Amino acid sequence: MISVAEALDQLFALVEPTDIETVPLTAACGRQLAEPLTARRNQPPFAASSMDGYAVIASEVRPGASFRVIGEAAAGRAFSGSVSSGEAVRIFTGAPVPEGADRVVIQEDAERDGDSITLGHSLDEAFYVRPLGGDFHTGDELSPRLLTPSDIALIAAMNHATVPVRKRPVVAILPTGDELVQPGEDPGPDQIVASNSYGLHALLARAGAEPRLLPIAKDTLGSLEAALTLAEGADLVVTIGGASVGDHDLVGEAASNLGLERSFYKIAMRPGKPLMAGRLSDMALVGLPGNPVSAMVCGHIFILPMIACYLGRKAAPAPRIRATLTAPLPENGPREHYMRARRDGDGIAAFERQDSALLTVLADANALLVRPPHDPARQAGETVEYIDLSTGG
Ligand SMILES: Nc1nc2c(c(=O)[nH]1)N[C@H]1C(S)=C(S)[C@@H](COP(=O)(O)OP(=O)(O)OC[C@H]3O[C@@H](n4cnc5c(N)ncnc54)[C@H](O)[C@@H]3O)O[C@H]1N2
Ligand code: MOO
């Protein structure tokens, strides 16, 4: 059995970043920006008023001072003249502050009478001028990242209508097992509902991949080989189940019959021991164990870092964070253990029940507490490492 770190290295070796494509802004959220994007203008492109009021010379502002109003500036309609001593320009939020003026007195602080204003006795001290380029300057860069709604607003303001993004890696998900039916169907007494295929679909979609759920394959070589053929054209095929040593665990054999060049089989990890990987024609193949939690944990530990690589990001394991144990842990065995855990504030505690079939426990967990092989028993108060389950992308 190889270690988790060795397995990850071999998985990364199977990945080539996807091509770059250009998409409109409205289709760019959740996509991986492929190259640094440069601002095409300053924002704001001029010194702008942040309030409705009067633009004046700051050094002339004092309680009771009067000014002559010589014009108006609104958003999209600048005042073309300049402000001299004793003068004011009526100004609205977002308008360019006219030449000569360097402060906006809010209208609540001024009394208007025809063409003149008189300031009140207690004045707001703020200047209410947003400086030119106060948000960003021409040439400022947005670095490659998975784009959020906030990024989209920023890219639009930088004056880009389209965005270069990585193509979503296509991931075929192949659930296998005679016992499985689809959610919503009517399972027989010895059947169960396929679950982790849907969990993985969600995990992959959130991470910027394009998951494609294949029909459930039966535990026969014929059915498995036919289903694997359906995956053709994908960047990655992820099989679920049939990976262990039982008589009906045939995924490895079916993939070998189709020409799988195996990278490894079995890792020193819990859950996830019977993980398998290799290259199948132009695709990478990862065979996940069928236990619902094992498949999902392997999704976080192996598949998400692979997706990041497909998207052109650095090959790196899931980031680990430190927290303080709030409950003791027993000694760990020979496999690296990813315990379902709950982190609250700085503290973390593993759930009592760690069976890899318990989806309720996984749904309650927001962290995987990582135990190195042969880690001794730990007491409350000790520092441990965990992987955050809530981000995943
Ligand atoms: N004698 C041994 N038995 C087992 C070993 C071992 O080393 N020696 N390893 C155990 C470990 S660890 C795991 S993990 C499982 C992995 O088994 P498989 O990958 O072959 O998975 P299956 O047997 O097909 O299924 C296991 C379990 O998961 C359920 N399942 C499968 N697919 C799904 C799905 N898409 N959604 C929900 N549930 C699924 C399946 O019904 C089984 O209950 O092997 C141990 N055995
Ligand atoms: O590896 Mo199995 O995944 O321990 O349940």
From TrEMBL:
GO MF, any single term: molybdopterin molybdotransferase activity
Keyword set includes Magnesium: yes
Reactions that this protein is recorded to catalyse: adenylyl-molybdopterin + molybdate = Mo-molybdopterin + AMP + H(+)
Entry's Gene Ontology cellular component terms: cytosol
Domain MoaB/Mog residues, every copy: 172-309
Pathway linked to the protein: Cofactor biosynthesis; molybdopterin biosynthesis
Domain of life according to the entry: Bacteria
Primary role: Catalyzes the insertion of molybdate into adenylated molybdopterin with the concomitant release of AMP.
Family: Belongs to the MoeA family.
Protein name in the entry: Molybdopterin molybdenumtransferase
Organism, scientific name: Pelagovum pacificum
